[in-house]
């Protein structure tokens, strides 16, 4: 799990007409939400340069942290994990079969949330992935144990697992793609999808425009395709009001029981939150179709042209009117929990109060 709180989900670089299209669509969504939720209206007015400076300083601290800072973030992630479990019961591994209970953790380092999982499930085993430190990944601070198998790799390079076995020899990353890592019939009862793009990760230039999407769909596709029926997925997301996040919540709601959780004592000012999906049914037609869509998105954004990648991204914005009609009311009910915590966090922050005392925040 990334420890710096938020690397915002970013739109891929696109031409101005594409940005206009995306802005228009999101504008309709924003108007819908504003008409439904006073809490959303309270939150969306914040525009404060002091806050921008505060978050930049936090990111710099996370990127260049000393041993004391690393330990602080590790303990913080344990707090978040324990609080999440206390609120949702998500981290105690459910088992509805005779298989050995297992945990899958994408982007595990430094290991704070996994440490909580192992305390709650002391007899269970975990398979984890984390970016090597020599490639810019975080140091693993989790105490070594034979119950945890850690793969030090970049999961966005898991081509064979993502359904692509033939790599064009001229591709910039041709030698870096990886063979099959997870067995086809290997399943897990609790899956943590909490990786974020790291600013410290050195990668080929072609990856910059779609990297956040590639990382997200890799976790979702591999996680759901290796989920034991009835298991739980915990997914770190940002900006719940973004259309792609709303669409993801709607998708999961069709084959699992979903709820959202946002910490009140860490990162409350940020847009980050967790989707908790329980009783996941990976064989449901919607789940199967979602996995195929995510794998295709990864393939196009890894091997396709920039124009092809934009086309895939644009397709995610089609049909938003139907989404609002079918899921809008339920979405607002879920999202208001996140918005209220974030709004309270901002209003209670030192930088916000300082700005209000001087010239007042731009509302």
TrEMBL record:
Region annotation Disordered: where it falls in the sequence? 1-23
SUPFAM superfamilies this protein is in?
Answer: S-adenosyl-L-methionine-dependent methyltransferases
InterPro entries for this protein: RNA_MeTrfase_FtsJ_dom, SAM-dependent_MTases_sf
Q: Which GO terms describe its molecular function?
A: methyltransferase activity
Q: Which Pfam families match?
A: FtsJ
Q: Where in the numbering of this chain does the Ribosomal RNA methyltransferase FtsJ domain appear?
A: 101-278
The biological processes this protein is annotated with in GO are: methylation
Which residue intervals are annotated with compositional bias (Basic and acidic residues) in the record? 7-22
Protein name (Swiss-Prot/TrEMBL): Ribosomal RNA methyltransferase FtsJ domain-containing protein
Recorded source organism is: Elsinoe batatas
Q: What is the lineage of its organism?
A: Eukaryota, Fungi, Dikarya, Ascomycota, Pezizomycotina
